[in-house]
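In pairs, describe these two lines:
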Amino acid sequence: MKVRILTSVLAFLLLASGALPIHTARAAVNDYVTVTKSINPTSITTEQEAEVNLQVKGTPPANVVVPNDVILIIDKSGSMNNDNRMTSAKTGAKGFVDLMDMTKHRVGIIDYSSETNIKSYNMTTDKVAVKNYIDTIQANGSTATGDAIQKAIDILLADKRPEAQPVIVILTDGDATVGSPTPYEFAKNKAQSAKDQGIIFYTIALLGPNDNPDTSGPNQLLKEMATTAAHHHFVLGSTGLAEIYAAIVREIGLASAYNVTVSDIVTADFEIVPGSYDNNIPKPTVTGNTITWAFNELKDSNLTFTYKIRPVSKTKTGTLATSASSSIINYSDYAGAARTKAIPNVNVTVKWPAPVITQIVESSGHPDGGNQVTISGKHFKTGATVTIGTKNATNVQIISDTEIKATVPSNVQSTVAVKVKNTDGQTASIDYQYKADPIVTLITPNKGPLAGGTKVTLQGNYFMPGVKVKFGDKTANSDSYTNVRNFSVFAPAGATAGPVDLTITNPDGTFITIPAGYTYEAPPVVKPVVTGVTPNSGLTTGGNSVYVNGQNLSANVTVKFGENAGTIQSVNSTSRLTVIVPAAAQAGIVDVTVLDDTGSTILENAYTYNAPVYPDPTITSISPNSGFTNVEKTAVINGTNFRNGAKVYFGSTEAVIKGSISSTKISVDVPNVADPGKVDVRVVNDDQKQAVLAEGYEYIVFVPDPVTVTNLGLTSGKLPGGDTMYITGTNFKSGAKVYFGSKPGLSVSVLNSTKLSVAVPAGDALGVVDVTVTNPDGGTGTLPQSYTYTAVTPTITSLSPDRGVKDKATSIYINGTNFESSGMTVKINDVVVSHTFISATRLSVVVPVSATAGVVPIEVTLAIGTSAVANYTYENAPLGPTPTITSLSSNNGSSNGGNSIYVVGTNFVNGSKVYVAGVQATATYTSATRLTLKLPAGSPGPVEIKVVNPDGQESNGFTYTYN
């Protein structure tokens, strides 16, 4: 909790409590006020401002306590109930009273909220009575701060002791909300009125825990109301309030000066900046060059007053005094004697503003100089000098305080500072660029190899250190920079032979381009040559290594044997390669060619391909050597000298080879044939050599095991199917399928050779079907006319509810079995109604209203036509209580009708009808005990009035007389 407490007054606790003797009033002999003055900054230009800081501090006498009459103003508006504020305020106020020395001081209370809820307890020395009164204060209402202050003024002036200092201590937590022209102005005006009448004004702002004191409206208001900034305090939340009250009570009566006036008179060289003093508490008055603060008392804490000054003359400079010698503080000491304290002067150094350069035209020029420039800016003084780089400009003309003209001296090509120096030594600068495009007079040499690396020297003028050269689009590496007339670079490698532009660019961006300034020369063409191949023959399968001899050979050449490229295995030298020979399609003599991007050479008839000679294949066995006709199977052929690319035949039918072929084994898919018998098996290698195993494989007719179906777990079921059953029989095999008529069964699981399970599929129609089991090998068995598809019939087991009021549509559930999600209809009393399918056992429908009560059928019909019926009962709505007429607001009236009367009674409802002499009249429902009746015209004489409710209940008759 941030709490600002007057810690400096703690030393006066003994004095405030009366422990030390009090001397009679007499003229004080000491100086009870000190004042210091400072200024920031201490040096300004004729266009700048400086802030003056006055520190005024009192030194109370150590043995004097002035009697005080104190009014505590306590806010009791509704917001004081927040954060325990009211309790803390009362506790702090009672602590304040406890600490007061009632032998010298008196205290009174103002507690306030709205302007009509301001109460008071007059000044007294009875601590107990005051604290008892404080305990009765309760928070409620708005915040009439100004009215409360006026009430305190009235009490202090009405009961004023000549020897006592009147004091107001106000505590509030909220904005002033009462008074005009605004509540704030009203409160501040009342506080100023109190101070004008010599009343010391303490303020305490009781803020919320999260409020910002710098932006809080109540805090700013109370700060401006206080006698000085030292008389204002605030707390965030209620913690610390008691300590502030205690600090205030300890310091009342201890003051070094009263009726203080601080008058600071600014010398004629300066003027006071308007508004620069508005944040001072109290706010000063300013008349011309005199600024004055007035307040009722000065404690021993520093009061800080600030304001700003600025030079009047724009030409006068030097060390100048800021205060006149007549600047003074006037005050009265505790004995009432008039006293003064001189306010010290502080000096400030005033100088011209430094020159400022905003522009130079032109901002660049030739290194030879001689051109005139115009320098624009401000604060240029007569006698100012101009330097450009390290040289003085010539022909300098001070045109005005914003313009200078000068002639530029020569310089090397570079960027330099242009400086303007006033006669007081202050300077300003701006950049100026000496620039000229480079000139090239000679390029040596102006051509070189495409590979680059040639040292090229350029001669001319205006070359800067760091100059760059591009050969076409490639930047050269620098060799050496000699001077502005000579430098050299190394030519980069070129992309293609031929001339390229040379671009010379200085670091300052100046450049020159020499079209076709350098020529790249193409290197001589050296193509590869083949002179021989060793060895010069090999098999058509290739893969053997040979030496290719010749000239200018490298890894970049291609070696072709006929039309096929070999693989370079190694580069032995520029005259020999080791090459792997490619395979050839046929035997014969071919040319050998070597080629690269420079060209090719051919050595004719340089290499001979020889056909390889392979041994004949043999078949030693086939495993297995027999199998069923029209059944997929695999066989392995064993033998010798089998080759990749071999083909296998069973009779005249080629078999499909599986996997790779080894020299002794081939795996094949045996071709399917329809006819049984033995066939030859042939293996034909890619060189057309073959082996035959006569009648090596026999096809045998396949006869599947007979299947029987002996029993079904279920012999009938609903047409939609879905039931699961067991089927028993013989020779059931894994993968078997089950058919109900032509429909395949679902989720077939073969448990063993005699038992399987199956889910019955949906049938096409009602009736009996065959059940057939078929094995993967074709074996099949049927139990004829063994399963019956039966119709599905719905049932209704209950209606929930099964009855309802006939005048109201009612939602009900139909509970039963075999309900379907589609194709089903629901009728109520033979009328189709919409329904919601919930499940096979529940539907929901809305029973429509009925004109009559009674039992009606509810029928559910499936798509196949089967149905179920249940009864629903329409009931009459229960009758309400019988209406009664107890009186009429008037029992007679004109026979012309048109007048309105009240019908008074019981059990009337909205919609009740009123009959006069048996004819319905216009009536308005007002309440259950009153109807408003507009009487129709009638014949003179008595008539009967009755009320009939919407449920038909009829009231007693009541007599009305037509006059």
About this structure: The chain has seven helices and 80 strands. The longest strand covers residues 599-610. Residues 1-29 have pLDDT under 50 and may be disordered. The longest helix spans residues 85-99.
